[in-house]
Backbone:
RNA sequence: GGCCCCAUCGUCUAGCCUGGUUAGGACACCAGGUUCUCAACCUGGUAACGCGGGUUCAAAUCCCGCUGGGGUCACCA
């Protein structure tokens, strides 16, 4: 036991979806454990009874699994045919609400040793004192009034069942944290007061629970966001009081929006409010949201809508909400490998060159799991750049082979774009893949590439400029070529991309014109616009019947157009 | 405001520890090439050491101050 196995943990509180920043923390913790051949543990911090929910827990577990972040110790999850989690080290349960006895044991020990004491002030009383302190421009600290009460009386009031909290006696000494990333950080004793370790409702506070759990679960390394840096001395003091080993700490920088603001769920509401106002909706434009709630939401900056309602509203307004939670990125058609790659690179750098001399930036989870190190981490905060993420995602999509692309796309459509999944089977998507892969940055925008296939043959909307340029300009030369090609196509049955391309090419040669002279008229005829995937693929997607029908329809349209 | 953390192109970063580089890469942007359109792809380009002091022959690199950004000051975690 001199050199224990490395154990890291991620401990989300189930009060909503998994935030992208939380996902990054989890990813790096996971990578650190893997790199050390250790274990990654997941614990659910549900000691805030009012805000925690089972559905949040479920969502967080699935988002992690989707990203490929799996845990050896923690809640069980069936995902994609595999079982994640378990309690092989028998240090569970992994829900804090189920560990109350363990916390009370620790709290009682502290009380018995006079390292903690009950306090009877009400939240209102404390709030008043806090306000006074702020008004007097002095930092608020608990005044230890409850310590003045004699032990005898404390015991009596306790026995009488008087509501109380338990406070920990913070030692009067500086505490230095040896942070693996930031170095030594020393905090003086006047920065702390006797913080609460058990709330009125009998639940432990975060500080107590996290200290007890990390110790009892054998956590050796704690990697967490820098917002926790100031908490660490409290945990260190608690560890000392309880006789626990101190884990190794590293506090990593936080991530922000490009404008420097915090990435918050509220950003989604903000975007939707702005769009609603611009669209001039005085009353609720969607079902499932009544007018009163809608106008209140619009008026009140802090009011937030339920996730589903917000999504419905965004769809109605035709806007894309800023992605904040992992779930948002998933819905928007990001690939997990692109997201984790980007996330890892946001603050960590492998400091390795590719063969061509450029820096290594594209790597997978296996690479991360074998090469991650705290030394490669930056100390500065960074901004989340969706543009670069999109580029990574486009690269990841392009790197998929056709079958894999089709599988991912179909799967995505089944969840988030039913009409697409109904129109095209997974097998269809395999043949669509070459046309779509290099033209979409997310699975969601793959749809726009093949939008022409969604339209009925007789409902094509023609782009006037494109029609003029390709068909009418130059005394109908394009139109004549199109008609002529249509005649040849009538007897042509081999509708594969390659054959069609050969056919068009041969036709162009026979007419002694460049490929473009026939390709563009054809393209406009079958799609209505001057932009589409390569002709062979475009026509193959439509099939012979639709192609002929569309050419006929276009010829008719062009004839009426020029009268 | 107190305390704590941080600071290289627009953004993410390499270089800093162990002073000497034309300060490198990626995304974005611009130009060109390729091409049946678009995309993809290829080539090239614009672009940074926050400011002020010190130490030194020499500072992005070491030290100090300032400025700026962030975190935190809950019976939330």
Residues:
């Amino acid at each position: 036991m001199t050199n224990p196995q490395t154990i890291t943990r991620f401990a989300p509180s189930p009060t909503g979806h998994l935030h992208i920043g939380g996902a990054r923390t989890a990813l790096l913790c996971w990578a650190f454990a893997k790199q050390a051949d250790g274990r990654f543990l997941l614990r659910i911090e549900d000691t805030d009874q009012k805000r925690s929910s089972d559905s949040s827990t479920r969502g967080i577990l699935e988002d992690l699994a989707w990203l490929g972040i799996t845990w050896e110790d923690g809640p069980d999850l069936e995902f994609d045919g595999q079982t994640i989690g378990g309690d092989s080290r028998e240090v569970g349960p992994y829900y804090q609400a189920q560990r109350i006895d363990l916390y009370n044991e620790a709290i009682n020990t502290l009380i018995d040793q006079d390292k903690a004491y009950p306090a009877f002030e009400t939240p209102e009383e404390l709030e008043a004192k806090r306000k006074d302190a702020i008004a007097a421009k002095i930092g608020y600290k608990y005044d230890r009034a409850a310590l003045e009460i004699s032990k005898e009386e404390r015991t009596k009031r306790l026995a009488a069942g008087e509501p109380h909290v338990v406070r920990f006696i913070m030692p009067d000494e500086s505490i230095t944290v040896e942070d693996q990333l930031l170095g030594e950080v020393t905090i003086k004793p006047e920065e702390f007061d006797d913080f609460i370790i058990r709330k009125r409702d009998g639940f432990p506070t975060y500080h107590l629970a996290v200290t007890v759990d990390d110790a009892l679960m054998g956590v050796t390394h704690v990697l967490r966001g820098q917002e926790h840096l100031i908490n660490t001395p409290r945990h260190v003091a608690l560890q000392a009081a309880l006789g626990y080993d101190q884990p190794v700490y590293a506090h990593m920088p936080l991530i922000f929006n490009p404008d420097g603001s915090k990435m918050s769920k509220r950003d989604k509401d903000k975007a939707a409010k702005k769009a609603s106002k611009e669209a001039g909706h005085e009353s609720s434009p969607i079902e499932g949201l009544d007018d009163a709630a809608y106008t209140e939401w619009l008026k009140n900056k802090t009011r937030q809508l339920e996730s589903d309602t917000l999504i419905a509203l965004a769809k109605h307004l035709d806007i894309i909400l800023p992605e904040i939670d992992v779930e948002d990125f998933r819905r928007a058609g990001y690939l997990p490998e692109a997201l984790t790659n980007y996330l890892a690179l946001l603050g960590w750098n492998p400091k390795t060159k590719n063969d061509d001399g450029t820096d290594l930036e594209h790597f997978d989870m296996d690479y991360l799991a074998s090469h991650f190190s705290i030394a490669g981490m930056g100390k500065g905060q960074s901004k989340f750049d969706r543009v670069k993420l999109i580029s990574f995602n486009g690269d990841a999509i392009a790197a998929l082979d056709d079958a894999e692309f089709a599988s991912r796309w179909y799967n995505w459509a089944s969840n988030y774009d039913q009409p697409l999944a109904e129109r095209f089977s997974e097998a269809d998507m395999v043949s669509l893949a070459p046309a779509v892969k290099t033209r979409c940055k997310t699975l969601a925008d793959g749809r726009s590439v093949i939008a022409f296939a969604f339209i009925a043959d007789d409902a094509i909307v023609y782009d006037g400029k494109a029609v003029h340029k390709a068909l009418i300009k130059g005394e109908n030369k394009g139109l004549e070529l199109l008609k002529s090609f249509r005649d040849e196509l009538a007897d042509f049955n081999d509708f594969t991309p390659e054959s069609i391309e050969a056919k068009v090419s041969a036709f162009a040669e026979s007419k002694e014109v460049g490929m473009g002279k026939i390709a563009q008229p054809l393209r406009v005829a079958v799609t209505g616009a001057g932009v589409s995937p390569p002709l062979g693929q475009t026509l193959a997607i439509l099939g012979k019947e639709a192609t002929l029908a569309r050419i006929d329809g276009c010829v008719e349209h062009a004839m009426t157009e020029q009268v």
Observations:
- The longest strand of chain A covers residues 74-79.
